[in-house]
Amino acid sequence: MSAEVDVIVIGAGAAGLAAARELSRRGCSVTLLEAANRIGGRAFSEEFVPGEWFDHGCAWLVGGETNPFTPIATEHGLSLSTETRPLFTLEHTRLIRNGRRIDAAERKARLAYYEACETAIAAAAEEGRDVPLSAVIPQDPALDQPFRTMIDVSWGDATTDRVSTIDHGTGEGDLGYRVHKGLGTLVAIWGADMPVSLNVTAERIDWSGPQMKVITDKGTLTAKTVLITVSTGVLADERIRFHPPLPDWKQEAINDLPMITENKVGLYLRPGFITDADRAYHATWTDDGLSAKVDTAVTGGNTAVVLFGGPEALSLEKEGPAAMESFATDRLSDIFGSNVRKDVRRSIATGWKGNQATLGSWAAARPGRACQRKRLAQSVDDRFFFAGEATMTGSKGTCHGAYFSGLRAAREIADKIAPAMPEAGLTG
Ligand SMILES: Cc1cc2nc3c(=O)[nH]c(=O)nc-3n(C[C@H](O)[C@H](O)[C@H](O)COP(=O)(O)OP(=O)(O)OC[C@H]3O[C@@H](n4cnc5c(N)ncnc54)[C@H](O)[C@@H]3O)c2cc1C
Questions:
Q1: pTM of the predicted model as reported, rounded to 2 decimal places
Q2: What's the whole-number average pLDDT of the chain?
């Protein structure tokens, strides 16, 4: 590794790939570094049984037709589940309490509570009141489900006193489309033509002199500018050290946007077990506090996916895949009865907290600190640039948000070092 380039991009997730592509299009020389042995970062699909794909990270093309990856999927011949989109909305979500589907009256009362919570949060966000969700939602433990399950899945292990009203209130709408072969597959195919140095970990950035020096485990690289797209978990844990240190305002922004953890378990069931009538999205909970969202193969196939946050996201990950599978099978039993156990053929569990490339699932602003997303996005000394899902406000914590952040950072850099190039397009 040698020769100075215009830009070194650190991290080949959706943000880094979008940035590197746009920078190259604008005539900048780019080196894209990725610590893992694959591109995509938190976009990663695995075919764990032939024809059955499991997204370890992002799965939904949030926003459906407005998502920039929707036309990219079509361009690359990947089919989408568009018609199942309504089944992922609250209106169609099946509500299961203590292993029984709740009746219409209870459903009505619980959804009214849910609605009241969302209205209160949206009003606070609209007024610019950045406080914990718990400070504005009505307190009614008798009705707090499925609202709490939704918070667990949206914000992982963060509780309502840890989630910011502005962060939550500026979120996007329903879940959107799915990619039959996985959203991770789509990102991998879209990014496949980008030159990437895989298995190269950036360890230190020396910006004490006129050049930016990136010290990796494979040698030192130099560049005019550096774009960092790694998670705030990686930055807060000082997996990349800076000489001199980052300014206090930037370090504060990193610390104010810590990672939360949501985990998933995919359970491949005996073919034929899931009938068309069973294909639904569920919120299931028990009165002793266990809850999850369960997708019983809404978009086809034989794989159910159990998604969970709350304290279980961390404690079960710590216990290991067997404990996660057992928890997930219990949640499936809530829906199908305990006979389902003998029909589980294979399982796969994520472990996002322990994943050294991210150290969590996505960033959540501390209450009162949602404004730090904009500061995280700001450059330092016109040489250090930042992208990644955590730098976004509206589409934070998403794959397309990461993509947009990469385009934004690429434009900022190109305007500094190659101002004559044309404007960027929004798609691939
Ligand atoms: C369980 C889960 C479910 C999700 N569901 C959805 C969903 O349904 N829809 C949606 O839109 N989004 C979803 N997301 C969020 C989405 O996956 C992320 O927001 C997005 O993929 C982040 O992209 P990024 O480029 O910002 O970061 P990353 O994908 O984390 O990319 C950063 C890259 O940097 C690399 N890296 C780290 N350290 C170094 C280093 N020192 N040197 C070099 N490289 C390094 C990493 O290996 C990684 O590849 C989900 C995420 C999770 C975890």
A1: 0.96
A2: 95
